[in-house]
Amino acid sequence: MTSTSAVPSALAPYGWDADWADTFAPYAADGLLPGRVVRVDRGQCDVVTADGVIRADTAFVTPHDPLRVVCTGDWVAVDPAGTPRYVRAYLPRRTAFVRSTSSKRSDGQILAANVDHAVIAVSLAVELDLGRVERFLALAWESGAAPVVVLTKADLVPEPATLAHLVHDVETSAPGVPVLTVSAHDGDGLDVLTAVLGTGTSVLLGQSGAGKSTLANALKGEDVLTVQAARDVDGKGRHTTTTRNLLALPGGGVLIDTPGLRGVGLYDADTGVAQVFSEIEELAEGCRFHDCAHEAEPGCAVLAALDSGDLPARRLDSYRKLKRENQWIVAKTDARVRAELRRDWKRKGAEGRAAVEAKRKGWR
Fold first, then answer.
1. Dist CA 78 CA 89 (whole Å)
2. What is the strand order of the sheet 117-123 is part of?
3. Is 96-257 a domain of CATH 3.40.50.850?
4. Is the CA virtual torsion 24, 252, 180, 132 positive or negative?
5. How many CB atoms lie within 10 A of CB 80?
6. Which pLDDT belongs to residue 230?
7. CA-to-CA distance for 149 and 169, rounded, in angstroms?
């Protein structure tokens, strides 16, 4: 068995550092081994340790809270020997990427832990859905990771002017976020992306058919993930990747590939939404009322920017949609927020009835 002194160097390619070692010290004193979860599947997980990759059972750390289950990217304490071997605990997470499991429920699902970069893959083979990009960005900012938008399949847009226009549209929807164009087919842009992901842990996110597995293979330098062609009719792909897999990249850094996400529900992501729509948040500071809803209030700086053309209507619509959705999710578990929503609904209902009555009087 590998000695404890060899652990840091053996796990360094997977992100082990002095801070993790300090956090793990109490478990080391109990004779447990550190490792990082590279894959989770039905109550078991693959863990990379100084002795190599082992299979471990998660029965001892499977709580009722779905946000506290072991997930890909976790640093864990595992039994040094035995059949089966068990995960005894996971270390406190530095970051966690969480989404809502369903738009009709308030449960959260953790997709990846201890992530530094959230790479949002967007295919250029289909029409851009900027609203979906903004949704991914909100979840990324909320997780604590730094988002990066990667426009894949750039070789399918041969006209430089067209490509530049698409990049500009995404940049407008992703203020402060790097937007890169990559073609895994001919290698264009891979060097820049490799440099960005060369340190820390990155999670690769996007819809099925966005080219995530192809991109992961290109970054890894070998075909470690199965690739399937997207449908020509709509550019959508099958779920090539069915589990979240953690890969150490040859140029440094760690990559977590994820299955294609068709449903991307927000989960208590108010801070993330505010970050994505930072220009609207800044405009809101100039509104006459501090609780301005930016709908019909007098002195609303957001509506003034909309009227002047400085704020695109699509951005404001997307902002309103994500704010409402996030508020609904939070209200499912927060009684105070539920009460505020009820008061708001009653107020709007009364205003609507008053408006209807005023129109009726005007018709008489």
1. 7
2. 179-181, 146-152, 117-123, 201-205, 254-257, 245-248
3. no
4. negative
5. 13
6. 46
7. 12
Residue span(s) of the chain under CATH 1.10.40.50 come to 270-363
Q: What angle do CA 310, 311, 315 make, to 5 degrees?
A: 160
Q: Right CATH number for 4-90 from 3.40.50.360, 2.40.50.140, 2.30.29.170, 2.60.40.1180?
A: 2.40.50.140
The C-alpha atoms of residue 352 and residue 187 are separated, in whole angstroms, by 57
- Assigned architecture for domain 270-363: Orthogonal Bundle (1.10)
Cα–Cα nearest to 50, from 84, 89, 4: 4
What is the distance, to the nearest Å, from the Cα of residue 297 to the centroid of all Cα atoms in its chain?
34
Report the Cα 220 to chain-centroid distance in Å.
21
CATH 3.40.50.300 domain span(s) along the chain: 96-257
How confident is the chain (364 residues) per 10-residue block, as mean pLDDT?
59 93 95 95 91 92 84 96 93 90 66 94 94 93 94 93 96 95 92 93 88 89 58 45 78 87 73 94 94 90 96 95 85 54 49 53 55
What pLDDT is recorded for position 327? 83
